[in-house]
Design a protein that fits this description.
By secondary structure, the chain is of the alpha/beta class. It is globular, with a radius of gyration of 18 Å. Strand 5, helix 6 (165-186) and strand 6 form a beta-alpha-beta unit. Helices cover 43% and strands 14% of the residues. A seven-stranded parallel β-sheet has the order 3-2-1-4-5-6-7, with helices on both faces. Helix 2 packs across helix 8 (226-238), helix 4 (76-90) packs parallel to helix 5 and helix 5 (113-138) runs parallel beside helix 6 (165-186). The chain has one domain: 3-Layer(aba) Sandwich (Rossmann fold), CATH 3.40.50.720.
């Protein structure tokens, strides 16, 4: 058994990854966990076709079981329903990765209350609700469980035109600490941590000059990959002495600003 399987005392831990339908970070995390023997629940809203293709590929490659769950996270009742569907299917839930999020640039004066509320519903409230549903179930398991939230490196250094996005991600940071206390008090084998990605998976609209600027804004002088984030998730699932903590996976971007350069980048 690998260390992840030993931690959860099963050859097939069960992992739910929200926002794992589209070919972005969440999907790579799901594939990576499957490579360690996890049965995987992929969650998608609009990217169900991609999620189904990924589920088929995971099962064929790793011989593990997969399910696809569809649901719009801006509808609060769907968050708990998604978790319950996984538990009903597998009878257990060992890992929850809250990867689903929305973001797009909007000037401060153009942000509407409706848009702000939608950000909070998807980026913050849904994360809170899935964490509560999964976490309270995990406290009843002898093996506990592990929740990993995905935040953003720039909650400490926000950039322009994302005044709706960053407050909702900052809420995830505080939520991580709070849930680590709440759930760990009930069962010390339940842990909650957070990953703060930097520039990874740049969009096709990013020019070569922009890519170089972004790479130069890191200490390692390159853009990261979704696999870097997935590996951090693996670490947090394996290391059972880490809870309430944050791992910044950004190539040093959060501590380095060459010549005062400020580069805004979305992750996900």
């Amino acid at each position: 058994m690998n260390s992840l399987q030993r931690n959860f005392n099963t050859t097939h831990p069960v992992a739910l990854v929200t926002g794992s339908g589209a070919p972005r970070v969440g999907q790579v995390i799901a594939k990576h966990l499957a490579s360690f023997g996890c049965h995987v629940a992929l969650h998608a809203y609009q990217s169900v076709k991609d999620a189904n293709a990924t589920a088929t590929a995971i099962s064929a490659t790793h011989g593990t079981q997969t399910i696809v769950i569809q649901g719009a996270l801006e509808e609060p009742e769907n968050a708990e329903s998604i978790v319950n569907q996984v538990i009903d299917r597998f009878g257990r839930l060992d890992i929850l990765v809250n990867s689903a999020a929305i973001w797009h640039p909007t000037k401060l004066e153009d942000v509407t209350s409706e848009e702000l509320f939608r950000y909070y519903k998807i980026n913050t409230l849904a994360c809170w609700l899935t964490s509560r549903a999964a976490g309270l179930f995990m406290t009843k398991q002898n093996s506990g469980g592990c929740i990993v939230n995905i935040s953003d490196w720039a909650t400490e250094r926000p950039y322009l035109d994302h005044a709706a996005y960053f407050p909702t991600k900052g809420g995830v940071d505080t939520m991580t600490r709070s849930f680590a206390v709440e759930l760990g008090h009930r069962n010390p084998r339940v842990r909650v941590n957070c990953i703060k990605p930097g520039p990874v998976l740049l969009g096709d609209q990013v020019s070569e000059d922009q890519r170089k600027t972004i790479a130069d804004s890191t200490l390692v002088k390159r853009v990261g990959t979704a696999e870097h984030i997935a590996h951090a998730v693996q670490f947090l699932c394996e290391n059972d002495f880490v809870t309430g903590s944050f791992i910044t996976v950004d190539g040093g971007r959060s501590i380095f600003s060459p010549d005062g350069l400020q580069v805004g980048m979305n992750t996900g």
